[in-house]
Amino acid sequence: MPEGEKKSEEPVGQPGCLNKNCWLAKTLNHSPYSRCQYCELKFHQCIFLHYQIISIVLISLFLTLFFLIEGRVSELVIICIFTLVIVYGYFLNKSTDKIIKANFAQREAKLALEKLAEKLEERVDEQTKDIGEKNKYLEELLNMKTDFLRVVNHQLNTPLAVMKGYFSMMEEGSYPPAKARPAIKGGLERISSTVSDFWDAYELEGEKMKMEPQKTDIAQIVNGLIPEKQNLQLALERKLKIEVQKPEFSAQARSAFGGEIPLVWCDYKKIAHVISNLLDNAIYYTRQGGVTVFYELVGKNYLKINIKDTGSGISKQDQKKLFQKFSRLKNATDLRPDGSGLGLFIAKKIIQGNDGEITCFSEGADKGSTFSFTLPIYKNQKLTSEGEKSPIKEEKIVIFGKNN
Amino acid sequence: MVTTNVMKSKKGRILLVEDEKQLVDIYHDFLEMNGYDFLSTKDIAEALQLTEFEQPDLVLLDIIIPKPENTIAEQGWEYLAAVKKNPKTKDIPIVVFTNLETHRDRVKSEKMGASAYIFKRDCSPREVMEAIAEIIKTSKEKKNKE
Amino acid sequence: MQQCQIHDDSLKFSRAFYGIMVLVAVLIRSEWLVLAASILMALGIFSLKLNLPYQFHLLVIKKMKKEKSLPVEKESAELNFVSGMTAVLLLIGFLLIYFDKFVSFAWIYILVVDLLIFLACFVGFCVATLMYVFFKKVFKF
After folding, report:
1. Does B107 touch chain A (CB under 8 A)?
2. Does A202 touch chain B (CB under 8 A)?
3. Which residues of B touch A210 (CB under 8 A)?
4. Where are the domains of chain A?
5. Residues sharing a CB contact under 8 Å with residue B56, sequence separation 6 or more, in sequence order
6. What are the residue ranges spanned by the domains of chain C?
7. Cβ neighbours of A392 in B, within 8 Å
């Protein structure tokens, strides 16, 4: 980097630039030579100055010497010396021009290169960051894919294995078709619901599930499910008690919603699915004791349904991960070997789509857990007009235009 | 491709656009057993021709019909659009008969002019036939009104 | 400090002109030619406009050649000083010859001054300019 600053009006290299480092240029207030605009050296470094001093010295020296030796000064000698000085000076002038300009060009190139390198570094840093982020995203996707494949494999192969087993026994003739048929049918149903579950879980990534809300009697759903769950093989084996607790709401509240338990505004089928799922979970993860369903009111607008079990409980850390895809607790495989890990994730989507919240409470391992979710109480809500003119049901056969 | 006699059966003529041979066989047997004429093809161009010239009473349309370069190509939508555009075929009831099970697919079927949506996997041939009968009946009534 | 725009090649021309003029004077030993040169130069003390060869080159020859060249900024004081200095030196030479003192030395002296003019013209090395700078520093203006 050159010492000192250039003329404030012009940068180096531009005509009119004054070399502030050069004493001569500063005093004269202009550049003595055209090359001086490219020069940033101090005056005592100036090549030309050296030439000038030397030539003056030499000329004086030779003239004096000549005079002393010869006793006179010949005109011819003077002309010769001066001619030499002039001629060499002329060429020196030209080459100094070239040198200074070349130096300048070199300095410029160096600066440009440095700037370029800086810029490149910046760009590279940016790109690296970008790549790092993309990498992270891809890793996540890869993990998701791996999870997915593993679960798909497992969830589909398991019922297939069962079905194949029964089927081959039937073929051999060692198993009555009448008994094999329902088992195979069950396997088919399991595979179907797994495929549907995957669609639900992945297709609705980030979206709210579409609901068809209606006036729903939760108590009816629950009461209908209780005997069915009570008769599950696992419940009978473990002698679990599945029951519903009668709520004790104030008389005022009861008169407001005209019954023991208020009606809610939600998608009947899907909520029934969630309750069934939660009850199943409770049963699976409870070795002894029982499952209790009880109700609470949250403010004036929400009904809270709680499903409490005396089962293996959930630690504080695990509670955070519960509603994520594929999350399963460490001991879950012992209790429910064929869980897909999607049940709670889908349940959360459904509850959120119905304007509710789902939570879990547990005091810790082996201390039981309570799963709760809220739903809005029915207060004469109507379906909004957007897109609900002729709602397309989620049935397996839908004939369009039937309501026209 | 399975063709039929020249005389149209009383119950109706069904065209099935489907590439899965085993499924075609099931429905061929079942529907013919129940008195329907049955046509089928797995090629979209041929399907369009058949629709125009044989004038079936109903078309069962599979959506996912693979192309050599794309095994999950949804060519069925193209067929549906073409049929509804052609004045000679736009009144033929088309039933989307597919394994695509999302709400979006149902909405798309209705939007593109299909008469119904049937989720292939979970419906038995009998259920499908009942739906077919109902749709043909409704469409015939509509035609008579005009 | 007053700045003015001068054309470098015109300046070179005027210096060459004076140089040749004085060289001829030395060769033919004509002190009157020397005086003439001195007087011409003296005109340039006051303003560049009076520097006849310069103006001649600028207006006439330039037009004939139809070339454009860029003017350079210089301090007018410097040019005036240079003109004046050279004029004075030549005048001294003339006077020496005129009054017949150290005549041969005088001619040598005039020759040297002449060659310095050529030096300034071709090499851009003007001793008078250095003297000007020196005086400027000394008198600090």
Report:
1. yes
2. no
3. 103
4. 23-128, 145-203, 214-376
5. B12, B13, B14, B15, B37, B39, B50, B92
6. 3-139
7. 103, 106-107, 110, 117
Contacts of residue A204, Cβ cutoff 8 Å, sequence gap at least 6: A349
Segment A368-394, tens digit of pLDDT: 899 999 999 888 777 765 544 445 667
CB-based burial, A260-269: b 16+ in 10 Å, e otherwise: ebbbbbbbbe
Structural domain for B122, as ranges: 13-141
Mutation site for C-interface testing, chosen from A78, A81, A93, A96 by largest number of C Cβ within 10 Å: A78
Closest partner residue to C133 (CB to CB) among A16, A28, A48 is: A28
Q: Do A90 and C133 touch (CB under 8 A)?
A: no
Q: Residue B69 sits in a domain of what CATH number?
A: 3.40.50.2300
Where residue A331 falls among pLDDT bands split at 50, 70, 90? low
B63: in domain: yes
Is the interface score ipTM higher than 0.90? no
Q: Concatenate the DSSP letters of all residues of B27-95 into one string.
A: HHHHHHHTT-EEEEES-HHHHHHHHHHH--SEEEE-S---BTTBTT--THHHHHHHHHHSTTTTTS-EE
Which residues, 6 or more positions from B130, have their beta carbon under 8 angstroms from its beta carbon? none
CB pairs under 8 A between A and C: 64
Across the interface, do A399 and B114 touch by the CB < 8 Å criterion?
no
CATH class name, domain A214-376: alpha beta
Q: How far apart are CA B65 and CA A188, in angstroms?
A: 24
* Residue that the structure tokens 């979710």 belong to: A373
Residues of A in contact with C75 (CB under 8 A): 28-30
Q: How many domains does chain B have?
A: 1
> Highest mean pLDDT range out of A270-284, A332-346, B49-63, C79-93?
B49-63
